[in-house]
């Protein structure tokens, strides 16, 4: 796990509420979307589109033949029958493997409204043949290169367009927690993620999708898209906050058995 900053409270908690996209909003304007990125340059066999009523809602990552990892705020209001997934396709509307959901497991910390715990597991109604992504042992220190991927509009404000069919990617890096303090980041369990490009980062609609560290063809999952790093609802104007999946490896392992 990366080195942590001091926990924030009071004013920071208020900023968290302003910058957080709850599930209903994520569905209206699908998840948190990558702006300033480009079409995916390689296949991501484990990348998944979490869907409601046949439309892309959030990102997710296959981590076991019958389990995917996503953000809690994408599914906290959902019954299994509300959700479907398309796994292993670079387009969210066709190809890959389709699966339903038999169980939704939201991390208990999320249900207590703490600034962390924005992570959830979905059990598929069938095992799939795509190769899962491995979760890293720890997320990198500040300055570590990373990559984020997802489907979504390429404009930076809520409701400004439709998500593209083609999966998008963007090169990013782990930023100091101090750059995400307006969103009340919890250093031990969250990652502040920045881009060197202007107006480029995660945005409304890419929620639940992965942050990756490694090299092309050899990626490890470190983060899960959670929220904007600033209460200003314009994507790319500040780093984004990712749930540090490596901090929850014990919970993930015990849940999926």
Automatic annotation (TrEMBL):
GO terms for biological process: proteolysis. The keyword NADP does not apply. This is Serine protease. One of its GO terms (molecular function) is serine-type endopeptidase activity. CDD domains: Tryp_SPc. InterPro entries: Peptidase_S1 (IPR050430), Peptidase_S1_PA (IPR009003), Peptidase_S1_PA_chymotrypsin (IPR043504), Peptidase_S1A (IPR001314), Trypsin_dom (IPR001254), TRYPSIN_HIS (IPR018114). SMART domains: Tryp_SPc. It comes from Saccharopolyspora aridisoli. Pfam families: Trypsin (PF00089). Residues 1-23 form the signal peptide. Belongs to the peptidase S1 family. Gene3D superfamilies: Trypsin-like serine proteases. The keyword Protease applies. Keywords: Disulfide bond, Hydrolase, Protease, Serine protease, Signal. Residues 34-257 form the Peptidase S1 domain.
